[in-house]
Amino acid sequence: MEWIYDAWPWYVGGPLVALIMLALIYLGKSFGFSSNFRTMCALAGAGKSCNFFDFDWRAQRWNLLFLLGSVIGGYVAVHYLSDNQVPAISADTIAQLKAMNFESAGNAYVPTEIYGDMSWSNIVLLIVGGLFIGFGTRYAGGCTSGHAISGLSDLQLPSLIAVIGFFIGGLLMVHGLFPLIF
């Protein structure tokens, strides 16, 4: 059982993802978690007031089950199949984060300075960040998993452009905005 507690190497995880993507392509399905929000809204009846949600959500039931399985799988993995929740990061990164007043760096899975204290500023930061992510996902026509995994597997040029944009946005956030916010 010890092998399941550690992170799996790329040469195991990568082919597993590739096999899943090949199966989805063979079945004519496209993968992406953000599309589940549209499906859930259509299921709830939002199609009556907005044309965007007026579609046959039943055709996407498989994706809802995939989402549910991912949530359950994540829960099982965290609570029953792992013994160390703190990711190993370099000493230089820990030092840089501590210089930005993140004292939990290297000791916690997520920064307790943001997620441990639910002050108004942290709540506003999380809400604004969530709105930006939601807007960006809709504006880009999908999320990072949909574009980077499914779209690139289908050799879609818009997905390649979106993934390049995700990387540029991530670099700008980490090296430009993040130091200004914290």
Automatic annotation (TrEMBL):
The entry's keywords:
Cell inner membrane, Cell membrane, Membrane, Transmembrane, Transmembrane helix, Transport
Give the domain of life: Bacteria
| Subcellular localization, as worded in the UniProt entry | Cell inner membrane
| Membrane topology listed for this record | Multi-pass membrane protein
Which InterPro entries does this chain map to?
A: Sulf_transp_TsuA/YedE (IPR007272)
Query: In this record, what's one Pfam family?
Result: Sulf_transp
Entry keyword annotation includes Aminoacyl-tRNA synthetase: no
Its predominant location is membrane
Q: Where are the transmembrane segments?
A: 12-28, 62-81, 120-140, 160-181
* Family to which the UniProt record says this protein belongs: Belongs to the TsuA/YedE (TC 9.B.102) family.
Which protein is depicted?
YeeE/YedE family protein
